[in-house]
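Dear all,

This email documents one entry for the complex benchmark we are building for the journal club exercise. For each entry we list the sequence lines for every component of the assembly. Then comes the predicted three-dimensional structure of the complex as a token string, followed by one or two observations. Please use this as the template for your own entries, and keep the labels exactly as they appear.
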Amino acid sequence: EVLNRQSGVAAVRPRRSVAVRAEAAPINPEVRKNEEKVVDSVLVADLSKPLTAYCRCWRSGTFPLCDGSHVKHNKATGDNVGPLLLKKQKE
Amino acid sequence: EVLNRQSGVAAVRPRRSVAVRAEAAPINPEVRKNEEKVVDSVLVADLSKPLTAYCRCWRSGTFPLCDGSHVKHNKATGDNVGPLLLKKQKE
Ligand code: FES
Ligand code: FES
């Protein structure tokens, strides 16, 4: 078995495989892939809760809000990402 | 040449390679890797500008702020990520 099982690509395609590094991989697997660039706006005056968490891991089921999915992502990958917290007041 | 050149790992280690998918890779290569989880807080009352962009691509040199690095990341990977914009007023 000499296939490159990590990529699912046979090892006989060296050119393509060399170019793919961890740093050059997409980080958003599923969120609004029909959009060229996913940008969200928050009008901060409209924030209703004292604290609102916004996703930066691209794994939330409620994107752009954080639903805690970063925990699973971090555990699965050894990553250390987390949300941006918007606060209306200093506690 | 039967090495898995995409991962830099020899193809003789099938167990580890099978577990690593695009969805199970870290998305933050460099930002504050000494922290277990990178969480940032914004006190929205302290926002000085009408619009402030916060990074969600983990490539910004001014993280947690966006410095436009998502453009290079998207071009290099075919990804479609972008910042979260915090706005003080409706234009
Ligand atoms: S779910 Fe993405 S940062 Fe929490
Ligand atoms: S630099 Fe990361 S979203 Fe803009």
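Observations: Chain A has a mean pLDDT of 85. Chain A touches chain B through 59 residues (CB under 8 Å).
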